Amino acid sequence: LESAIIKAEKLAILGQMAAGLVHEVRNPLTVIGGFLQLLQKYLKGTPQEEYVTLILTELKHVNILISDFLQLTKPGFSNRSRCSISKIITDVVMLVESEAFLRKLDINLDMATDIPDILGDSEQLKQVFLNIFKNAFDALSQGGKIFLQTSWDRHEKFIQVVFRDTGTGMDEQTVANMFDPFFTTKESGTGLGMFIIKKIIDNHGGRIEVRSIPGEGTSVTVLLPAG
Ligand code: ADP
Ligand code: MG
């Protein structure tokens, strides 16, 4: 019970910190965006114009991430619509492909073609799969493979997405703690990835299961209800 209370307190603190951080970060980002747009005007027609355009695109992405993160501190979700898990995963794979290539990591895709749409927030679901990929990359610093498989259970009416990596794996204690906010075994980790993932999946009425063997690898299974 005590640990449940500590957990609840951690969550409350996290919520307050997030809201405060977003407030502090958003204002300078708005200023940066404004001056970048000005700079873009000055650089119109020069080879450097493209750099500013790229920075602005990334800035937009940061702003989206901030809004998403802020949503986690609120009850319920807003941007729900019909979305395709296959499309979401394809988009995420495109985002991580170049990094996988640089790190010489194989991504093995096995995607079912009969997967129905789900009602969800596609930006948030992207964040789920992106975070799982990031963790797999971290676990694969010595190289290896990632297998991604999607399937559709038409009886139970849920979509299953399985990520498997041949990375470092985790001991039981790490698996037990990995969803706690701020829990990290990495030097520069935030320990928020799995916490955010869990929250988004919970909000979609889904489930996440992790199985891991130290030295052999990890499989993360995401189950999402369809329809
Ligand atoms: P962070 O990545 O910032 O450490 P996360 O919440 O994403 O935070 O993950 C928490 C911890 O769970 C990681 O520090 C790591 O110990 C463990 N973990 C998560 N995914 C994997 C994985 N695929 N392989 C090995 N360990 C993992
Ligand atoms: Mg992470």
Automatic annotation (TrEMBL):
GO molecular function: ATP binding; phosphorelay sensor kinase activity
Keywords per UniProt: ATP-binding, Kinase, Nucleotide-binding, Phosphoprotein, Transferase, Two-component regulatory system
The species this protein was found in: Desulfocucumis palustris
Reactions it catalyzes: ATP + protein L-histidine = ADP + protein N-phospho-L-histidine
Annotated EC: 2.7.13.3
High-level lineage: Bacteria, Bacillati, Bacillota, Clostridia, Eubacteriales
Span of domain Histidine kinase: 20-227
GO BP term (any one): regulation of DNA-templated transcription
Protein name: histidine kinase
Residues of the whole record sequence present: 122 to 348 of 348
